[in-house]
Amino acid sequence: MKFFSVDGGLYKFMSRLWDMIKLNFLWILFSLPIVTIGAATVAAYSVTLKMVDESEGYIGRQFIKAFKENWKQGIPLGLLGVLALYAIYLDFEFFNKLEDNPIMFLIAGIVAVFVFGMSFIYAFPLSARYENTLLETLKNSARIATRYFLRTLLLAAVLAVEVFIGLFNTTTIFFAILIGPACLMLTVSGFAIYFFREIEREPGSVIEKEKEKEKEEE
């Protein structure tokens, strides 16, 4: 039956599932030192952006190649992201733990979530696709999020649903550990690649890129 053949739906689904498991494992493994989480995330996005196009090759080889190419740019981006998340966490902790729940910490936390989200939601896929400074990458992420604001809100909603499903019960938590981060990055890549291509077709693109990286398969 065609459904069970190498061209059938079941084979393609299992093949893609196995690719996601491998990518998720590599991302976790290369993120373990924490300091390298940014480089690992950029490398994972270099793979998921190709997955959207169905042009990925060997997942492990491509991930490691991208990690080596992006560690100088990815590490500071990742560390800045960790610091931003910690600052947001402190804002909400101060609001919850301090006497009378000072509203200023709640407001600061909400503002920080918005600013962080706008600046980082496309930062890692941008870093995977283009060469640029850290500051320009964050600026360009915010510009794209602002330009496609409604679709970015839709993306945030989809990600929230995926996280909710992943944490729903012990079974879904198992699958969330197995493929969760890779699924989230694939979702972001699906939105991001559309925005990137639309902007690239325009003269004087808002994406300030000095040189587009070569991500061709060996």
The Cα radius of gyration reads: 19 Å
Mean pLDDT comes to: 84
Q: Structural class, from secondary structure content?
A: mainly alpha
Number of strands: 2
Please tally the helical runs, counting DSSP H or I stretches of 4 or more residues. Answer: 8
Strand order of the largest sheet: 1-2
Low-confidence stretches: 208-215
**Main pleated-sheet profile:** 2 strands, antiparallel
Strand content: under 5%
Produce a short descriptive summary:
The chain is an all-alpha fold and about 220 residues long.
Structure report:
With 218 residues, the protein is mostly helical. It has helices at residues 9-31, 37-53, 59-97, 103-120, 123-129, 134-147, 149-166, 170-200; strands spanning 130-131, 211-212. It has a two-stranded antiparallel ribbon with strand order 1-2. Helix 3 packs antiparallel against helix 4. The radius of gyration is 19 Å and the shape is globular. The two termini are 34 Å apart. The relative contact order is 0.13.
Task: Give the arrangement of secondary structure elements.
Elements: H1 9-31, H2 37-53, H3 59-97, H4 103-120, H5 123-129, E1 130-131, H6 134-147, H7 149-166, H8 170-200, E2 211-212
Antiparallel strand pairs: 1-2
Keywords:
globular, 218 residues
